[in-house]
Design brief:
The protein is an alpha+beta fold. The chain has two domains: about 100 residues, Ribosomal Protein L25, Chain P, CATH 2.40.240.10; about 80 residues, RNA Polymerase Alpha Subunit, Chain A, domain 2 (Beta Complex), CATH 2.170.120. About 25% of the residues lie in helices and about 35% in strands. The strands form three sheets. It has a six-stranded mixed barrel. A four-stranded mixed β-sheet has the order 10-7-9-12, with no helix packed on it. Strands 8-13-11 form a three-stranded antiparallel β-sheet, with no helix packed on it. The longest helix is centred in the last third of the chain and has 23 residues. It is elongated.
């Protein structure tokens, strides 16, 4: 299940591009806490936010947010994190408040466990067609990830959404017939040869023929 972590923050009164730059220079991260029909600008210490996200070990981090000045904490799901591609610094975070007794929807990563028989003995290649699965559940039942045993997969065999076992209280929302993992057979030498185009020599030959014709025309003109 997804870990529930404590995150302390404060209300953000400064808005605008200049204010955000000043905020980040002070090692703080701006964010927005979304509720039902409302949104509240917030800010967090960059170091503390980074630690919480690292501790979660999952894309679906459930956090108890304590906002300075608020009497009660807010249970929220981290749903969007903006990161600077050059420095890896967190630039912004979006959080969606949830209730303990209400179902939520989230994308959960799916991982293949084991080596398929078709890869081990048949020389095939395991392909992951879906990297995440859409789930619906209560916050307490939200999984960190979904592991799928693929050891029995042979060549040209697939595991579909309908065949994946999920924890109690979790419902998959993807179409049941959608394949998640499949084992492709190895490529044969004939397929590789057939796939290789051999148009280059033909183009060169065509160019030489045109050059000869042009040369012949010039000789006639001289005569």
């Amino acid at each position: 299940m997804a870990k529930k972590l404590l995150l302390k923050g404060s209300k953000r009164n400064r808005i605008g591009r200049t204010a955000l730059k000043q905020l980040r220079r002070g090692d703080r991260v701006p964010g927005v806490l979304y509720g039902k029909g409302s949104s509240q600008p917030v800010e967090f210490q960059a170091v503390e936010l980074g630690k919480v996200l690292h501790q979660s070990g999952s894309e679906n981090a459930l956090v108890n947010i304590e906002i300075e000045g608020d009497a009660a904490s807010h249970l929220a799901l981290v749903q969007d994190i903006q990161i600077d591609p050059l420095t890896d610094r967190i630039l912004h975070v979006d959080l969606h408040e949830v209730r303990q007794d209400e179902t939520l929807r989230a994308e959960v990563s799916v991982h293949a466990i084991g080596e398929p028989a078709g890869v081990k003995t048949g020389g095939g290649l395991l392909e992951t067609l879906l990297h995440t699965l859409s789930v619906e559940c209560l916050p307490k039942d939200l999984p960190d990830s979904i592991d799928v045993d693929v050891t029995q997969l042979g060549l040209d065999q697939s595991i579909h959404v309908s065949e994946i076992q999920v924890p109690a209280g979790v419902r998959l929302l993807n179409p049941p017939a959608l394949p998640v993992f499949t084992v492709k057979p190895p490529k044969t030498g004939t397929e590789e040869t057939a796939a290789a185009p051999v148009t280059e020599p033909e183009v060169i030959k065509e160019k030489k023929d045109k050059d000869k014709e042009a040369g012949g025309d010039k000789e006639k003109e001289k005569k």
